[in-house]
Design brief:
Elements (H helix, E strand, L loop, with lengths): L2 E3 L9 E4 L2 H9 L7 E5 L5 E9 L4 E9 L8 E7 L5 H11 L2 E8 L9 H21 L7 E2 L3 E2 H8 L4 E5 L6 H10 L5 E6 L7 H9 L3 E3 L8 H16 L5 E4 L2
Parallel strand pairs: 1-3, 6-7, 6-11, 7-8, 7-9, 10-11, 10-12
Antiparallel strand pairs: 2-5, 3-4, 4-5, 5-13
Helix pairs in contact: 2-3, 2-7
Length: 254
Amino acid sequence: MHHFFTDPANIDDKYVYITGSDVNHIKKVLRMKQGEKLLVSNGIDKDYYCEIEEITDRYVRGLILKVDCEGSEPDCQFYLFQCLPKGDKMETIIQKAVELGAKEIIPVSSKRSVVKLDEKKAEGKIKRWNLISESGAKQSRRAVIPEVKSVFTFKEAIEYSKGFDINIIPYENFKDMKKTREVINKIKPGMKVGIFIGPEGGFDESEIDMAKEAGIERISLGRRILRTETAGMTILSILMFETERCGDYCGSIS
């Protein structure tokens, strides 16, 4: 089933209206017709299962068949602080982080980050990364489109994470799996969770010290050294499995 987003203002008790570029995509690319089903999210908290009733040049109108109040969003809010990797790895990281439930992806410039983006390059990258996030949200039937923020310094990232319920930082020199399990078990539905992932070469020792001073919990991802593009996906997968629950429908229209 094809998935689209629309503004909550375009939804009433009976109908959902899709506007903008998605109208042309539905008409010209997908060649959808009246009577076909689609999924529409309001970008906040609800999914609407609809049947197309009308297609015009300005909008697509869908009759609401079923409303999912739980949506597909995780019960925790996961914020991925990803230190800038080399090449196009960030695109893959964003795509997979969105699929695995990240609420926001925050690119971070750390001491060992090889990639350094000037303001002009960063602007273009952020725009592209947000398009990848939107595409990933549609593909994975997310209820929201996770935002990819502007590039933070490591210090700014720590400051941004203050006030979260818990922050964790996988660190290759931390070997205590018992402590790691205790930290993971602290994470409960409703929490805001910051996840700090280092670049190729890992975090500088001074950054680990800074994280410890800020109360960020060090954890281990096991005996193996994971690539930067693997580490975030690993911990997001673990947290999604540990905190996920099944949703339920809150309404239907015959």
